[in-house]
Amino acid sequence: MQATAKRERRRSVLAPYLFIAPVIILLFIFNVMPLLISFFISLFDADISFHLNKFIGLGNFAEVFSDNRFYNSLGVTLKWTVVEVPCQLILALILAGLLTRNTVINKIFRAIYFMPIVCSATATGIMWKLILHSNVGYITYLLRMMGFGKINFMNTAGLTFYVIVFMSVWKTFGISTTILIGAMQNVPTVLYEAADIDGCSRARQFFAITLPGIRPTLWFLIMTRIIGSFQVFDIVYTTTGGGPSLTTETLVTYIYTRGFEVFRMGYASSLSVVLLGLILIITVIMYAAMLKGEKD
Amino acid sequence: MSNKLIRRIRYIPIFLLLLFFALLIILPVLWMALSAFKPAKEIIKYPPTLFPSNFDLGNFARLKTRLRIIDYVRNSLIYALGTTLPSVFLCTLAGYGFARFEFRGRNALFILVLATMMIPFQVTMIPLFLVVKKIGLYDTYPGLILPKLAAAITIFMMRSAFVTLPKELEEAARIDGATEFGTFWRIMLPQVKPSIITMLILGINAAWNDLMWPLLVTGDTKMRTLANGLALFIGSDTTEYGPAFAGAMVSILPMLLLYIFGQRYFVEGTVTSGLKG
Question: Which CATH number is A59-295 given?
Answer without folding.
Answer: 1.10.3720.10
